[in-house]
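Reviewers of the previous submission asked for a worked example of the structure-prediction workflow described in the proposal, so we include one complete record here. The input consisted solely of the amino acid sequence. No template or homolog information was supplied to the procedure at any stage.
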Amino acid sequence: MLDRVGSALLLSMALALPAVAQREGVTLHTGTDRDGERQLFVRDEPDLSQTRFGAGRARSITVPRGCVATLFTRPNFRGRRVEVKDDDNDLGNTPVGYETASLTVRCGGGYRDGDRDGDRDGGYRRRERDESRGVTLFRDRDLEGPSDTFDGDVPDLSRSRIGNRSASSIRVPRGCEATLYQKTNYRGRSTTFQDDDNNLKNTSVGEDTVSSLRVRCEGDRRREGYEVQGGWAGGAPPAPAPGPGVTLFRDRNLEGDSETFTRDVPDLTGTRIGARRASSVRVPRGCVAVLFELPGYQGRRTEFHDDDNNLKNTQVGEDTASSLRVDCTGR
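From that input alone, the workflow returned the following structure tokens.
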């Protein structure tokens, strides 16, 4: 009798062990009704073809309580998608059908993929959780889909989770400002955001084009200028601007990399914008700017009392300014 009781107890303990050891996640099955081969996923998987399970094989899915899975028909969380919050015995009845190629996994209300506050990746802080300090880019419109949050400048998004030319919407918390650029290293068309935008297609920078960004938040020690790995470009961080100034832009239409000046600069070579690089200028009300072709306020010159979107049409010319004078006293 005792042997039978002991055997039954050991059997029940053995059956219970897998449930205890089971990691929280979602399970894909190769057959309908959650049958066939299966694999548990506890974190995002950008390409199922690189897993033991494989791409285009999922026919059903097990989603435990408290978890949410999003299935995509293309790698890297692209293509048609469906969000699954419960078991589904036949994915053929969903928008993804039997074509699942990547998936995201959320359990317990948070990210399971690299839930690390403070990782360093390519010189900027990467935060997987949605935090109030930082700007978040989303792969899909309406602030949906895979995302990545940034609290510093990123010269090349290809090294981030969101990737280059993938953002479709942006979340900008109160007190923050973000500038998105079409090209890496803060070049090309750009748009500055001080609030959320659900559809980047309606902006100057466009949808699925963003390749770099700048982030500024209130209380941030980064001042006018930009932060790079290991220190500030050009040495020590510049002093905060005492008032309005004149801004030079690398590209026409007040776009691309830029720098603001509040005083005369005899040689632009030592600045971030550089000499012989300006293509447009912003001159706020009450300011006057004079651009010179040569250092030391020499050569051809043009005086500006207002913005100019294309320096090619001026006497000083485009990609020629090497020095400038700034007067914002209102005289």
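The radius of gyration is 27 Å. We consider this example representative of the routine output the project will generate in years two and three.
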